[in-house]
Amino acid sequence: MTLALAFAIEWWLSHRQLAYVRTHRDAVPDAFKDTISLEAHRKAADYTIDKARLANVDRIVGLVILLLFTLGGGIDVVNRFWAGFELSPLVTGIAVILSTMLLINLFELPISLYQTFVIEERYGFNRNTPKQFITDLLLQTGLSLAIGGPLLALILWIMQSVGNYWWLLAWSIVMGFSILMSWAFPTFIAPLFNKFTPLEDETLKKRIETLLDRCGFQSKGIFVMDGSRRSGHGNAYFTGIGDSKRIVFFDTLINSLNHDELEAVLAHELGHFRRKHVLKMLVASALITLTGFALLGWLSGQDWFYSGLGVSSQSNALALLLFMLIAPVFATFLQPIIAYFQRRHEFEADDFAAYYTRPIYLINALVKLYRDNASTLTPDPLYSAFHYSHPPASIRIANLSAKSS
After folding, report:
1. Is 249 helix (H, G, I), strand (E, B) or coil?
2. Cβ proximity of 124 and 134 under 8 Å
3. How many domains would you assign to the chain?
4. Are 16 and 61 in contact (CB under 8 A)?
5. How far apart are CA 91 and CA 72, in angstroms?
6. Active site includes 351?
């Protein structure tokens, strides 16, 4: 029932988005008539529509996969296969979870290929090659096994050995691991996929360092990432915690924006840091994760949890696997709440940027980003309230324009 409701909500919202974007395809919103051409507006609408259609296909594929592996008996088949090797319960559990997740990713691979080499290619964004795509896929899989495998083994061992409140210890370990990865990602993991070079433009670098001093922000450096290696989309972000914090500009963004606009974009990103948005989202994530582990701790001891999802036997590994598969279904109902707070954070970061730089600079940067990334200016209000982590373009620009008056 919950699965059907979640699917119906997502399908209905997608239908609204498609209809709304299509209806407004041939008219640039008044606020953007002087900065966005009708051709660019239509391109963004068509790009949004094509992505939404593919998302619907992905939604159907995901539903079919979930049903096949649960009610269809897929997990039972995988479990019996590994049980035949008569390994220890811990090793068998690890093998069942990892092989099931690998199979699911393989089934979903065609969607990713179509997104990259058909849709992104059609709109001029794809810079990826089949060789690079395969290399990335193998590297991601290898890292998932090398990093996720031991973590999975530790959680299963805790479930098996610690008693009724195992979930509390497991949660603390997962949160500690998340913080560790936030520290390690910019220094050790991200460079495996992209090249990061120190910012060479001395004039821009000096302006950024001045801004950092004014905002009270310290980082390990300002870097340019070769995002154009895979995509024509542009972005900027800061990453890491503690001594590993660094500021990253995509090379595509450096080539698209002038110095004033880049400084404004960076001020926005710094606003997230100064307003403690990262910390707030980490706390929210910790609470949601804790609730999830507590729920898993209870469900793992309920017979109906297994039989109701088409699994004939019971084990810690099967309980964890089933929970991993069905949790996204229930997360659907949290999306509008999470998106609401994310949009609030974006407004606060925009206000921060408007205080430390001129609002018009961020407005100009955002308009260029909407245009260059083919982001629709006319999303369905209800769809955006449910899914968008950033405020719609017209609302965001209006908020910034009010700051400059």
Report:
1. strand
2. no
3. 1
4. no
5. 24
6. no
Catalytic residue among 263, 350, 372, 380: 350
DSSP line for 285-297: HHHHHHHHHHHHH
164 close to 297: Cβ distance less than 8 angstroms: yes
The end-to-end CA distance of the chain, in Å, is 51
Please give the residue range of the domain that contains residue 333: 1-405
d(CA 136, CA 141): 8
Counts for the chain of helices (H) and strands (E), in that order? 18, 4
For every residue of 338-362, which 3-state class applies, written as one string?
HHHHHHHHHHHHHHHHHHHCCHHHH
**C-alpha angle 343-344-346 in degrees, rounded to nearest 5:** 60
Residue 360 contacts residue 404 (beta carbons within 8 Å): yes
269, 346, 372, 380: the catalytic one is 269
- pLDDT in single tens digits along all 405 residues of the chain: 788 999 999 999 999 999 999 999 999 998 899 899 999 999 999 999 999 999 999 999 999 999 999 999 999 999 999 999 999 999 999 999 999 999 999 999 999 999 999 999 999 999 999 999 999 999 999 999 999 999 999 999 999 999 888 999 999 999 999 988 888 888 888 899 999 998 888 898 888 888 888 887 777 778 899 989 899 888 888 777 766 677 888 999 898 999 999 999 999 988 988 898 888 988 999 999 999 999 999 999 999 999 999 999 999 999 999 999 999 998 899 999 999 999 999 999 999 999 999 999 999 999 999 999 999 999 999 999 999 999 999 999 999 998 875
Q: Which residue has tokens 């974007």?
A: 21
Q: Which residues pair with 126 in a beta bridge?
A: 231
